[in-house]
Amino acid sequence: MGHHSNRFLDYLTRVKRYATHTVNAYRTDLKQFEAYLAHSFGIQEYQQVDAALIRSWLASLSSKKVAKRTFNRKVSCLRSFFHYLEKEGVIDKNPMWKIKSLKPEDRLPVFLEEDRVRDLFLEGDFEPGFPGLRDLLMLEIFYSTGIRLSELINLQHQHVDAGSGQIRIVGKGNKQRIIPLLAKVLELHEAYLTEKARLFGTGPADHLFVTDKGKQLYPVWVHRKVQKHLAMVSTKTRKSPHVLRHSFATHMLNRGADLNAIKELLGHASLSATQVYTHNSIEKIKRVYKQAHPKA
Questions:
Q1: Taking the complete model, does pTM exceed 0.90, yes or no?
Q2: What residues does CATH 1.10.443.10 cover in the chain?
Q3: How is domain 2-98 classified at the CATH fold level?
Q4: Where in the chain is the domain with CATH 1.10.150.130?
């Protein structure tokens, strides 16, 4: 069974260009699924798997009180995997067509208030020299473009066009989008490039952001850096790169940006994914209304 899942994961990486953390999550899901089938039913081939067996595994996950978000990711993983097996002719019938995801929990995006973001960039404690320039530029690009973690890690020097003041981001499914860069970000980018070239040299296809040793960044490293800096200005539980992405979208919407424009900037495939940010704006309007209306 493992050779089919390995080929599927390789397909997601090389052809579909899925983010590394998504591929790793799917790898874990498939290993768990295969272990369950082998241990509980002695099944070694995917041709033997039917909807009843899949439901049995999902029921075991529910009994362990797996979070809805994790549960739905595992369903999504199996849905993509069995579609792949059917397309490759490994199975004749897709057993996932009757399997449904759970209704997701209503979770509003966590974001920083504008004054907290201002404190982050004006009063943040950044190291001197290359490390500080890199961290500051990294945070600036997260907040000023709404870029995803995987997209930032894969940025190359050629993706930033300083002349036109734009950055080209390669998103999910290898889709590309162009986003303007603020003047102060371009100035910081120039200072960072000078220091990076002095230490490591640069080429157009080199990764824009590197560690102190000149190696490509990886997700855990970026998370630690972002958490460190956000902890200085925020007491919120979540302090991840995605919080800066959420802050970018929420602040743009609060200041009158069109929802469709935000959709394009974020690289969302559909408007429904972007509409979640309207809830934060509505809640803000409700608070202002209750505080200001004479009869509230």
A1: no
A2: 114-290
A3: DNA polymerase; domain 1 (1.10.150)
A4: 2-98
Contact 9, 1 (CB under 8 A): no
Q: How many CA atoms lie within 13 A of 72 on its CB side?
A: 8
In CATH terms, the superfamily for domain 114-290 is Intergrase catalytic core (1.10.443.10)
Round to whole Å and give the CA distance between 116 and 240: 15
Q: How far apart are CA 158 and CA 136, in angstroms?
A: 20
The 10s digit of each residue's pLDDT in 196-225 is 999 998 888 899 999 999 999 999 999 999
CB-count burial class (<10 Å; 0-12, 13-18, 19+) for 271: exposed
For the CA atoms of 122, 125, 130, 135, what is the dihedral angle to 10 degrees? Answer: -70
User: How far is Cα 290 from Cα 3, in angstroms, rounded to an integer?
Assistant: 60
Q: Are 219 and 149 in contact (CB under 8 A)?
A: yes
Tokens representing 244?
């800066």
Percent of residues in the chain assigned helix, strand, coil, to nearest 5: 65, 5, 30
Active site residues: 148, 172, 242, 245, 268, 277
215-274 per-position pLDDT tens digit: 999 999 999 999 999 999 988 888 999 999 999 999 998 888 888 999 999 998 888 878
Report residue 135: phi and psi, to 5°.
-60, -45
